[in-house]
UniProtKB/TrEMBL annotation:
A Pfam family that the UniProt record links to this protein: PRMT_C
Keyword Electron transport: no
GO annotation (BP), single: methylation
Coiled-coil blocks: none
Transmembrane regions listed in the UniProt entry: none
Residue span(s) of domain Protein arginine N-methyltransferase: 97-207, 414-485
InterPro entries: Arg_MeTrfase, PRMT_dom, SAM-dependent_MTases_sf
Protein name in UniProt: Protein arginine N-methyltransferase domain-containing protein
Length: 495
């Protein structure tokens, strides 16, 4: 008998197939008992503006009037999200923004009781249910735990109706009470961003799975009409962005805020020597575009200490701040900018202008029932003590009094049911005009309404320009950044 739980949101990403192959080759008898018995993946065509924003930077820039183009003409593939990859996401948060363009369709079956193939392909003809543009395929899986077909677990979003062939089965379809963070839905972005369909049209979809991933390819006439959108760039020359950063770089409000702050800084400097002290492609290109007399030096990976010896008397130091690899980090990891500023202190001019000039660590109390429940400590499950894994899994709720819950990074807007209960307070202020120094602070929390407080959410607001108090907020109402969540050991009614 084999029992396994080698599953991620896409199903295959944690090595399910090679693990099953090894088990069947070396450990199992023929036709063994297995739990789970079978897994089936499903997909659905959807239209959603935000999902389009997460992968289509070229067309979004074309709609803007600021004149900044991060993607050169004819080179659409040079900057963007990783191709042929699915991204885990809580799609329920987009329920009101999603237009369904098809019924759910079955993609692959994986039988745990027999040795799986390393790869497989399938062709599907999907009948569309609405006019629209296919911005993404949302995928999920249905797990059949027993061979009789009486126990099921599904990661389907709660707004997607279960396919006809499993509708009457006892499935654990997600509701707000079942929200969990360990398994989400998967989002796949098509190669063509203008895949228009009409109601009752038949879309030819090719699906392929490898040992660790599932990908799709449209074979429709619509896509053939869009061949001109595809360029010759290869992955070797692609600068890969997360979907959230791709959406940010095309956000007109964010660009307006950044460009206004940059233009004001440039007006205060003649022939500036500007150092971009993070990995921001946008700032490097924007400053070069806005000031023909400026000398712009990006501190991208590769410049390093040897490159710094050629720098002298920098009078404009800028950052978003953004650093590759920090997309899933806690917000204060981007205070690396302050560290970089400190290391550069000897080559900064006395009147150097620094943007952002300050960072404000903000906090608010929140109602987070789904997140708290999903991170709750394990105790006894089916008669077995599971408490030994709480530390490893990062459990927070119901911790012993001697232990303290960690700070965890989350997109709060995707955390199920949420509500802000307090006013926003400032915990710490970081002054980037001065070298880095240790600091500490505390602040009272003023509740604006009664409610169950499950924890506190923290983030950094970046003061781009002090005189006009131009502030870039990365708080819980923003989709492009993760916030830090500190769940309480035991929730209570507050105030």
């Amino acid at each position: 008998m084999q029992i396994s739980e080698i599953l991620d949101s896409e199903l295959l990403g944690e090595g399910l197939i090679p693990t099953l192959q090894h088990a069947h080759d070396n450990l199992l008898v023929e036709n063994p008992l297995t739990v789970p018995y079978r897994a089936t993946t499903y997909g659905q065509l959807v239209e959603c503006t935000y999902l389009r924003d997460m992968h289509d930077l070229v067309n979004r820039e074309a709609e803007l009037s600021d004149g900044i183009r991060l993607v050169p003409s004819g080179m659409a593939g040079i900057l963007g999200v990783k191709k042929q990859q699915q991204f885990a996401m809580h799609c329920d948060a987009l329920k009101e923004e999603i237009k369904l363009l098809s019924e759910p369709f079955k993609v692959f079956d994986f039988d745990f009781w027999r040795r799986p193939d390393s790869s497989s392909e399938t062709e599907m003809h999907i009948k569309t249910t609405n006019d629209g543009t296919v911005h993404a395929i949302i995928s999920w899986w249905l797990l059949q735990l027993d061979s009789e077909g009486t126990i099921f677990y599904s990661t389907e979003p709660n707004w997607i109706r279960c396919p006809d062939d499993v509708r009457e089965l006892e499935s654990s379809s997600n509701s707000s009470d079942n929200w969990c963070d360990h398994w989400k839905q998967s989002v796949w972005f098509p190669q063509s961003v203008d895949l228009h369909v009409l109601k009752d049209e038949e879309v030819h979809l090719h699906a392929l799975h490898t040992e660790t991933s599932i990908s799709y390819d449209f074979k429709t006439l619509n896509e053939k009409r869009q061949v001109a959108h595809v360029d010759a760039c290869t992955d070797d020359f692609q600068i890969v962005l997360s979907p959230e950063r791709n959406a940010l770089y095309g956000d007109s409000s964010w660009r307006f805020l950044m460009l206004n702050a940059i233009e004001k800084a440039l007006r205060q400097r003649t022939d500036p020597l500007c150092l971009v002290a993070d990995d921001s492609i946008f700032l490097a290109i924007a400053i070069a575009r806005l000031s023909k007399s400026s000398n712009v030096i990006p501190l991208f990976p590769g410049l390093g200490k040897k490159g710094l010896q050629y720098l002298h008397k920098i009078n404009l130091l800028v950052a978003e701040p953004f650093y590759y690899g920090n997309d899933n980090a806690l917000p204060w990891q981007n205070l690396r900018f302050w560290k970089e500023r400190t290391l550069l202190d000897s080559i900064l001019s006395k009147d150097v202008l620094i943007m952002p000039c300050k960072g404000l660590l903000k906090v608010c109390a929140m109602y987070l029932p789904n997140l708290w429940r999903s991170r709750c400590c394990l105790k006894e499950v089916e008669g077995f003590d599971h408490s030994i894994v709480n530390t490893t899994l990062g459990a927070c709720g119901d911790l012993p009094l001697t232990e303290e819950s960690p700070f965890l990074p989350f997109y709060v807007w995707q955390c199920g049911e949420t509500k802000i209960l307090s006013e926003t307070a400032t915990v710490l202020e970081f002054d980037f005009s001065k070298p880095m120094s240790s600091c500490s602070g505390k602040t009272p929390i003023e509740f604006r309404e009664s409610g169950i407080c499950h924890g506190f959410v923290l983030w950094i607001d970046w003061v781009l320009e002090a005189e006009d108090n131009t502030v870039l907020s990365t708080g819980p109402d923003k989709r492009h950044w993760k916030q830090a969540v500190k769940l309480r050991e035991n929730y209570s009614l507050c105030p």
